[in-house]
Amino acid sequence: MMKALYSGVSGMRSHQTKMDVIGNNIANVNTYGYKSQRTTFRDVYYQQLKNPGGASVDRGGTNAAQVGYGAQIGSVDTIHTISGYSPTNKSTDIYINGEGFLTVETSTGQRLYTRLGALGFDSAGNLVDVNGSRVYGWNDGDFAINAEGVITVDEADLAAINIAPTDPDVEYTNITINTDGLITAVYNNKDDDSDPLNDTIVDLGVIAVASIQNQDALVHEGNSYYRESKNTGEITYNIPGSKGSGTGALVTGGLEMSNVDLANEFSDMIITQRGYQANTKIISVVDQMLEELVNLKR
């Protein structure tokens, strides 16, 4: 009888955790770049009441008799399906049209990964996200473009992107992020009208997209960030959409929507609520049985 009581308690705890996950998913239904999570259950421990027996010449075999002790959380998985494009009309917002993550460096020097491409340039020329973390890629001089327009980079040169001109008289206008991550701008020397580069388009940097071998092993850090774990495997940094990289090209002027399916979440919420109620009923019935047992002495 007490086994059933503990089974009901374990079931309530498991369903409570699942409801927490569902609530978080629904709360982030309009969070750009958010990836929904799911909860799976598994059974716990089984007490062996009778061991199985093999068949013999004069009798048949018997099966084991076991009593379980309830349920527990098996896993909380992140669903990394690619969601839709949401236009924002902001030229520095980017959507990764395929696999891959942007790489950022926080103020503490920690390297993290994100699908949220809400970017901008600060007063120092750093490419930063909405949290002020610097975005990684290759700066001018760390990449080359051949005659066919193909960008070549060395992963060892990966660094935080900064497009600030070295000459204080030079300014960049009409800054554009291209599908291959190349950042271009119109060059203007305010102090020298004869500068041959005036009103020409110059290449300033390239945004890197990280390809993660096992993205399901990424660990949530909050603020739309993930960090690598011991199970993420190899992480490589590529030109967005380049052949063989496995990463998607960039689409500017928009962000990735949340992949939360509200219909599915509400259905799971109803099922979870009923599961929780069923487990509370176990406890109520066991309590009644214990009361009857105590009353036997009267």
UniProtKB/TrEMBL annotation:
InterPro entries: Flag_bb_rod_N, Flagellar_FlgE/F/G, Flg_bb/hook_C_dom, FlgE/F/G-like, LlgE_F_G-like_D1. It comes from the Bacteria. GO terms for biological process: bacterial-type flagellum-dependent swarming motility. Residues 5-35 form the Flagellar basal body rod protein N-terminal domain. The keyword Zinc-finger does not apply. One of its GO terms (cellular component) is bacterial-type flagellum basal body. Residues 96-185 form the Flagellar hook protein FlgE/F/G-like D1 domain. It is found in: Bacterial flagellum basal body. Keywords: Bacterial flagellum, Cell projection, Cilium, Flagellum. The keyword ATP-binding does not apply. Residues 253-296 form the Flagellar basal-body/hook protein C-terminal domain. A flexible structure which links the flagellar filament to the drive apparatus in the basal body. PANTHER family: FLAGELLAR HOOK PROTEIN FLGE, FLAGELLAR PROTEIN. Belongs to the flagella basal body rod proteins family. This is Flagellar hook protein FlgE.
